[in-house]
């Protein structure tokens, strides 16, 4: 198939590009290469798959003409590109809006006007559910747990866009959903939880598991905001890409749908009270940390109910938390030169 991947030089995008190139698809990457690690990811793809294994269009999501040209003739558009950090959205809300809300609108319009009726898959976020302050929690020695949601939060949970990032990603989320209703575009929304894995150049305010490992390996300071008991369901990147592949293969069933995709209740970690001991076990030493105040919109717990994706797509996570964390740790150790400052 002819597949356009926006943000294809990023963490998730480059892993997806590798998968679809290996499958024999014709992949076009649309990326402005602004993210740290983008050039390294492209070099890795060329080394692994061949110099001519994909087409690169270096352009910005705000360049509607470039997006429109890139989308022509495509059979699938996978939209990963955008601004990814809550803290950055608070510091620069206009830039966040242009990258995420306007950027997603531009990508949708480019797909709609492409003349090829492409499948459109959108990378949304668990942040569309907001801080979930009214959800009753139980606090244990190492984590928070839901009192009334044993399977996690489902797609029917009320939306509550908290933070500029939540608003901009939520705007894209709802536009993508509505383009299926109004224009008949075959769109699918994936509300993603904490995705992790190789090729992830995590930073303090985005990609927390990768950042903790990078910091521990390189000796950079680690600051834990809040009490460290915040819980996330974590999903290995290969499992996420498989969900996208299944949606493409079953698009008649998936079109117009919204899916939670995360590790689910079987793959959860508290931010530090459980992650810290796991990393210290891998490294064989104590990892020092600093403490900071809670950050705006930080959910005490966010665990996705993924039963809809399992029922409609036959999808479920295959890589367990410890196995996936070990793979990420090994990749960071092997590529330490990319992170030393």
Architecture overview:
The protein is of the alpha/beta class and about 350 residues long. The chain has a single domain (about 1-340), classed as Rossmann fold (3-Layer(aba) Sandwich), CATH 3.40.50.720. It contains 12 helices and 15 strands. The chain has helices at about 10-20, 40-50, 65-70, 85-90, 95-110, 165-185, 210-220, 235-250, 250-255, 275-285, 305-315, 320-335; strands at about 1-5, 25-30, 55-60, 75-80, 120-125, 135-140, 145, 185-190, 195, 225, 230-235, 255-260, 270, 290, 300. The protein has a 7-stranded parallel sheet, with helices on both faces. Strands 9, 11, 13 and 15 form a 4-stranded mixed sheet that branches. Strands 6-7 form a two-stranded antiparallel sheet. Helix 1 (about 10-20) links the parallel strand 1 and strand 2 (about 25-30). The longest helix has 21 residues, at about 165-185. The N and C termini lie far apart (about 40 Å).
